[in-house]
Prior knowledge:
The protein is mainly β and 201 residues long. It contains no helices and 17 strands.
Amino acid sequence: IGHATSRDGVHWTKDPANPVLRKGTGKDWDKDGTWDPFVLYEDGVFKMWYGGGMNRHCDWGYAVSTDGVHFVKKGQLSHHGDVEDDHVVHDKATGRYFMYYCDRKIELGGLVLAQSPNETDFDFAHAEPIRIAGMKYPDSYKFTHVFQDDGQWHMFFAADVSWRTGYATSPDGLHWTARNPNFFTGQDGEVLKVADDLWLM
């Protein structure tokens, strides 16, 4: 997993220390690769959830850093396999962490949600399938980016494993309604609020 920095969100410089999170060695669970990172910066700590393994042996791990460059792995979080595209939201109202990810064991590769009271204890055994009102189900919803703003939950997602991104909203992170199934052509959209009237995608 590599790292880059920017002062304007447009022009990026790769970190000479790359990779900042290497694959494991020997019998490590992530010896076949590390990928799909998602990072939150909270209380002076970069918190990274990432995928490890390959093909059907993909699972989630967790690593932390104080500078965004030197990460320390904290271990494997799931033993489910066949997962990809995670995105984590820390709901400050409840203190809980919400992990959205694609479970390829579900018909058509369904979007699911696992919750945790902290950064690591996700209840994958009781992960809940996510349905989006106004969209067909079951279907493959993935490449999600979920965030909260002013009491509302927002999701950008790809449907049908197509090259298009849709937009949905939710009052609680669980029950979603499609607002625009064809928001733009493309996928894997990440969104960052940089000012009250400026967002970058």
